[in-house]
Design brief:
twelve-stranded parallel β-sheet; 3 helices; 31 strands; elongated
Length: 394
């Protein structure tokens, strides 16, 4: 009888939890003076502090309406899961100086079990900053804030909110584990400089799912130490595609391995699938175990590109080859239209040539005719309807 009662009690708790009977404590932003058409910087900080100290799950709510907000950094560890539910539009100061030289406008650090949900918009008002951005050529350029920073966050989900018009990268993910974007949206114009959609590094098991990204730089950029990354059902464009790298500049870099990119559509982007490393640079950490499959290209200038001579704005010398080994990379069922004759360009390092590259059913056209493939220091396995490699023109 006792055993039966305990079993019944456990089942009741499980059913209650799944049916919503056990709910998070609601913390409205208005509790701390956060009302539409006001500055909610302090209100959000106060709401977070209350939620973080709660022994039970909490839900911070920001309802519809427009709100202003300066730079905010919220930190854990917290005692229980927190959901930030946003239906409103939160607006950053247009002047970059008003964000007090912060790298990120909205920053989450050392938090576990975070959920960000709702249909809200975080508007970085980046147009003024884009005109000032000369960081590609000026090492002493002014710091411009990203919309979001997620640093050392675990077991968390970012849902269907929108990052709009960031001054710099839209999202930076650093040191995170089991971190998922699902239904997330990024909206920047194609002429917005250095506005990568999602950049990640030193992170394990990051998933980017069902996400639409329009930006002025890489839709997704994968930095060193990224392991077990999954990108699925993503739309990219405008932008510069999905990039691994650039890598090799520093000896402290960690390997990139186990990347899966599938069911992605690129539309009018500068690149599609790109891997880039620096020549004449000291980094040696390898790139291995990458799979790209079921990809659609619509008028993409460079659909598939490995560039181990990456050197933008002539910032480096090409006298010495890249020291980064690229291996076990598969391109499978890649279809659509290329904006250039060379739909596939595999320019690998002469010092450590690429190994284990597979082109399987890569069917790209340029002006109605099959696109070509050029390869240097790479001997890919050709399967199905894929172009044969030729040497690039001198």
């Amino acid at each position: 009888m006792m055993k039966s009662s305990i079993t019944t009690l456990v089942l009741f708790i499980l059913l209650a939890t799944s049916s919503g009977i056990v709910q998070s404590a609601d913390i409205p932003i208005s509790k701390f003076g956060g009302v539409p058409n006001s500055d909610i910087t302090q209100a959000l900080a106060n709401a977070w502090n209350e939620a973080c100290q709660s022994a039970t799950a909490s839900k911070i709510t920001i309802p519809s309406g427009q709100y202003r907000m300066k730079a905010v950094a919220v930190k854990g560890p917290c005692k229980a899961p927190i959901e930030l539910y946003v239906d409103g539009t939160i607006i950053a100061p247009p002047n970059p100086k008003d964000l007090n030289n912060e790298w990120q406008w909205v920053k989450f650090e050392y938090v576990d079990f975070l959920t960000i949900s709702g249909s809200g918009v975080f508007d970085g008002q980046g147009a003024t900053a884009w005109k000032l951005n000369d960081c590609g050529k000026n090492p002493n350029c002014a710091r411009l804030s990203m919309n979001f920073g997620f640093n050392f966050v675990k077991h968390s989900v970012v849902g269907s909110i929108t990052s709009k018009d960031s001054k710099n990268f839209n999202v930076n993910v650093l040191g995170c584990q089991n971190f998922t974007f699902d239904g997330f949206k990024i909206s920047n114009p194609g002429n917005s400089i250095n506005t990568d959609g999602i950049h990640m590094g030193r992170s394990t098991d990051v998933k980017i799912l069902n996400t639409n990204i329009a930006t002025g730089d890489d839709c997704i950029s994968i930095g060193d130490g990224s392991v077990q990354t999954t990108i699925s059902n993503v739309k990219c464009g405008p932008g510069h595609g999905i990039s691994v790298g650039s890598l090799g500049k520093f000896t402290t870099e960690l390997p990139v391995q186990d990347l899966m990119v599938k069911q992605v559509t690129f539309t009018n982007t500068d690149n599609g699938l790109r891997i880039k490393t620096w020549p004449s640079a000291p980094g040696t950490s390898p790139i291995t175990g990458l799979t790209y499959q079921d990809i659609t290209m619509i008028n993409v200038k460079n659909p598939i590109i490995i560039d181990q001579e990456y050197c933008p704005w002539n910032q480096c010398s090409k006298q010495s080859p890249s020291k980064i080994k690229i291996s076990n990379v598969t391109f499978k069922n890649i279809r659509g239209t290329s904006g250039t004759q060379e739909g596939v360009s595999l320019i690998c390092s002469s010092g450590v040539p690429c190994e284990g590259v597979v082109l399987s059913d890569v069917d790209l056209t340029f002006n109605g005719s099959p696109a070509t493939a050029v390869c240097r220091n790479a001997k890919p396995m050709i399967q199905g309807k894929s172009p044969q490699c030729t040497a690039p023109k001198a």
